[in-house]
Amino acid sequence: MKDLSSVELAALPPILQLRAVSQSFGTIEVLHDLNLSVARGEFVAIVGPSGCGKTTILNLLGGHIAPTRGEVVRDGKARMVFQQDGLLPWMTARQNIELGVRHLPQGSARDNKVNELLALIGLRDFSEHYPHQLSGGMRQRVELARALVSEAEILLLDEPFGALDFLTRLRLRGELVRLLQEFPRTVILVTHDIEEAAHLAERILVLGERPARVNCELRLDAPHPRDVTDPIVVDAVRRILGEMGLRE
Amino acid sequence: MRFVRGVDTRDFSNEWSLLKSFAVSQRSVSIWPRLLLPAVAVAVALAVWWVLSSTGVFPGTLFPSPADVWAGMSEELRTGRLFDDIVASLFRVVVGFGLGVLLGVPCGLVLGHNPLARATFLPGVNFFRSLSPLAWLGFAILWFGIGDVSSMFLIFMATFFPMVLATLAAVAGIPSIYFRVARDSDLSGIELLRRVTLPAIMPQLVTAFRVTAGIAWVVVVAAEMNGAQEGLGFAIIDARNALSPDLLVANMVVIGLVGVVLDQILARLSRIPSLRWGFER
Amino acid sequence: MKNPTVAYVAGAIAVVAVLGVLRLKPWQNKSGPTPIVSNANTAQGPTVSGEPQEVKVGFLPVTCHLTCPVTDFATRTSKANHFASMRFTDFPTVVDALKAKRIEATFMIVPLAMKLREQGVPVKIVYLGHRDGSEVIVRKDSPAKDLRALRGKTFAVPSKYSNQYLVIRALMERQGVAESDIKFVEMAPPDMPGALATGSIDAYFVGEPHAAKAEMDGTGRVLYYAKDIWPHFISCALVVHEDLINSKPEVVRDLVRGIAQSGEWAETHRVQAATLVAPYYRQKEKLLKFVLTTPPDRVSYRMLTPTDEDLQKIEDAAVKSGILKNDVPIKELVDRQFIPKDIKPANIVMPAKSGGPS
Ligand SMILES: Nc1ncnc2c1ncn2[C@@H]1O[C@H](COP(=O)(O)OP(=O)(O)O)[C@@H](O)[C@H]1O
Ligand SMILES: [Mg+2]
Asked: Which end of chain B is more exposed for a tag (fewer CB within 10 A), N or C?
C-alpha cells in the first residue's frame, strides 16, 4: 500500500508463487495448471463463482494442503482469515487477539499492542466479551485484528465479509484499508463479491468454472481509500461482469 | 455521526443494549417460576399421595403413607444414620465418578485423536459400556472386599466407559478450523491441549459430567449391594430386608433429592464464562 | 480462564477431602476400615490366648441367625474375643465375602455350605442356627389344605439352595404331587409377603420373620409349620473357614460356645431377645416378638448340634434335586469338636432403652 508504482513492485522478488499447480480431490480436478505470482505488499483479489476453487488456492498458498502437481513458493509467514467462526469461542476478544501476538514477549509490550488494536477496531469496551456476545461484524473485526497484529507478512482472506450485511460489509472494507495503512501486508482476498474486489484490490484475477483458470486479470491503480462509486471502481465492476458474460 | 476513534459505533451500541436486555430478561423471567412451579408440583403430588393412602385406595401394605415415611425419615435423621449414609454414598460416588472422569477423559482424548487407537479399542469400550455394573458385583467383592473400594470400583465401571465415549465424540466433533487457527498461532503439544482441544470439548464434557454423574448416582443402590454396611443404597436394600417400606421410601426420597442437588451443582459448571458459548445460540 | 479452572479443581479436591474425612472419621480410632482378624498374614502371628480380638461373623436379619447379634452383644465388652455381627442382605454376597476371606465365619443355609464344599471352598459346619422357624404360607382366603391344592400354582422359595426348597420337594413326593405340577420361583424373602398379597404368588416357604409378616399383615396364613413336615427342621448353620479353625481353634471354640449360650438365653428370654436384636436387624420389635412367641415353639434354639443323620438327609435331598452333583462326605463337612458339653444361658444384661449396634 505504500506508494510504490507497479513498475517498482514488479521489480521486487515475488512473495507468493504458484507454478503450474494442479489440484485434484479424488477424480475431480479443481485447479489445472495454474500460475500466479504476487509481489510483496500487493493486494490481490481473486473472484470467481462459488465452488471454482478459490478456497483451495488459499489453502495451497497457506501451506495447509500440498498441490497434486506443480510447486508453491512462499517467502514469509501466512495467516488465514475465515468467512466466519475463525475466533476461538472460549476466548474473549482480547485473548483471541493475543493469539496473534504470541511472537512478542509476554508483558506490557504485548498488552499495549493488543490494546492499540482493540482501540483501532473500536472494540475497547468489548475486549472481555466472548465471540458469541459479539455481532458478526465485530467478530470479523477481531479476526482481522488478530491477523494484522501477527508477524505474518501475508494475509489470506477467505471471503472475510461474506456473512455480513451490505452496510457492515462496506464499513469493514473501509476499516481493512485503514488497518492495512497502519500495518502493511501482502493480501490475497478471495471473494465472490466483484464490487468488493474492485473496491479494495490493486489486481483482480477472475477465475472461470472448474477446473479454474485465470480468465482475465485487471489492474486498478487508484489510490486508497477509494469510494464504491468511484468511476474506476464502477468501471472495473463493469469490465469483470463483461468478462464473466453477465452484462445485459 | 458519532465516532469513537474514527469508528462509527452506532451499530454496536444497538447490539450492546440488545445484549444487556437479553441477560436481564433471562434472569427476571425465570427466577420465580423456577422455584415456585416445582414446589407447587411437589405439594400437589404429596397431597395426592396423602389422599390415596388415608382413604385406603392405596393400603399401607402396598405403599407407606406420607406420615409413616416422615416418621421413618426423622428417625433416621435423629440417629444420625441418614447423615452417615449420605456421606458414605457421596464419598463412593464422588471418588468412583472422579476416577471415571480423570481416566476416561484422557482415554477419550487419545481415542478421539488417534484413528488407530480408536479402531483398536472402540469395540471394547462399547462392550464394557453395555455391561450392567451389577454384573461385576461378585468380582468386586472378590477383588476389593466389602465396603467402599468395591463400591467405588462398581461406580467407576459405570462411569468410565460413558465418559470415554462422550470425550471421544466431542473430540471427533471439534471443527478443524480451530486447529487451523491454533497452527497459525504456533500452538502445539500441551499448550494445544490446554488452550484449544480441552476448551473446545468442555461444554460437551460438562453435559457428559451431568449425565454420567446421574448414572453414578443411580448405580449407587446396586453398588452398595456388596455387603456394604452404610450408604443410601445399602439403606434401601436393608429397609427392604427389614420389611420397613417407610424407611425404604424415606431413603428413596433422600436419594432423589441428593441427585437433584448433585445435578444442580454440576449444571453450574455451564455458567463458567468461557463455557457459555457451548450453551447459547 | 486459568483462575476459574484452578478454583474448580481445588473445589473438587476439597469436596473429596471433606467427604473422605467425614466418611473415614480419623478422629475415631476404632472405626474406619477395621482390619479383619486372621487374614492370611495375621493368621501366622502368635495368638496369645486372652488377647482380645475382633472376629466378624456374617448374618442375615432372619431369626435363624438370631444368636449371632446376641453373641455380638454378649461379647462386646468382653476381655476375650468380640464376635462382631456383620449384617448382610443376601447369600451370594455372603459367599463372595467368605471366598475372599473378608469374613471367616458366617451363618448360611446348609445346602449352600455343601455346595461351597463341593466347589472346594474349605468351609465347615460347626453349629446350627435354630430348629424349625420356617413356614409354608398361603393366602388367608386360600382353601388349600395340602400341597395337592397348589397344583398349577406359583410357589416361592428363597433359593434353590435352601433347605426349604428341598423339604417341600420331599413333601410333594409324599403327597404324590409331580415336580412339574407346581411352578417354583426364587424370590428374595422380603418380597414374598407383598407378592402373596397382590396375588403374584400363591404360596411361599421361607424362614422367619418373613412368614410371620404375612400373618401379621392379615394377608396370609400358615399351611405347614416346618416341624410338621420335617421334625427339627434345619435351615441354617454356623459355617467357619478352615483357615480360621487351623490357625485359631480357640477363637472358634469361643465363638461356638458364645453362640450356643446365646441360643440357650434366647430360648428362655424370648421377649427380651426380640428387643435386643431389633436394632441389629433394623426390624420392628413387634414383628420379632410375634415370631418368637406365637406360638413359642415356632422357633427353637436348642438341639443345635448337627448330627450326621440331619446333614445326610439334607444332602441326599440336595443330590436328588440336582443342586449337588456328588456326595460330599459328611465328616468332611462338619466339625463338632468346638461344641461345649453343657450349655448355660449367656449372661446378658439388657441394654438401656436406646441400645443398639454401634
Ligand atoms: N478436501 C476436499 N475434498 C474433496 N473435495 C474438495 C475438498 N476441498 C474442496 N473440494 C472441492 O473442490 C471444489 C472447490 O472448492 P473450494 O476451493 O472450496 O471452492 P470455493 O471457490 O467456493 O472456495 C469444490 O467442488 C469442492 O467440493
Ligand atoms: Mg470457499
From this structure: N
Ligand 1 touching residue A56 (CB < 6 A): yes
Domain boundary assignment for chain C? 53-132+234-333, 134-229
How many Å lie between the centroid of ligand 2 and the Cα of residue C41? 72
Residue B80 is classified by DSSP as T
For ligand 1, is residue A45 a contact (CB within 6 Å)?
Answer: no
Q: pLDDT (tens digit, 9 = 90+) per residue, C14-51?
A: 999 999 999 888 877 553 333 333 333 333 333 444 56
Model pLDDT for residues A108-142, shown as the tens digit of each residue:
888 998 998 898 888 999 999 999 999 988 998 89
CATH number, domain C53-132+234-333, options 3.40.50.740, 3.30.420.130, 3.40.50.10190, 3.40.190.10: 3.40.190.10
Cα nearest neighbour of C2 on chain A = A91
Give chain B's domain count: 1
| Pairwise CA distance, residues A67 & A34, whole Å | 11
Which residues span the domain enclosing B252? 3-23+63-280
**Nearest in space to A220 (alpha carbons), one of A239, A246, A207:** A239
Q: What is the reported pTM?
A: 0.76
Contacting residues for C109 by C-beta, under 8 A, at least 6 apart: C91, C158, C159, C161, C162, C163, C235, C236
- Indicate which residue's Cα is closest to atom 16 of ligand 1: A53
Secondary structure class of B3 (helix, strand, coil): strand
Domain C134-229 belongs in CATH node 3.40.50.300: no
- Per the CB < 8 Å rule, is B241 touching C8? no
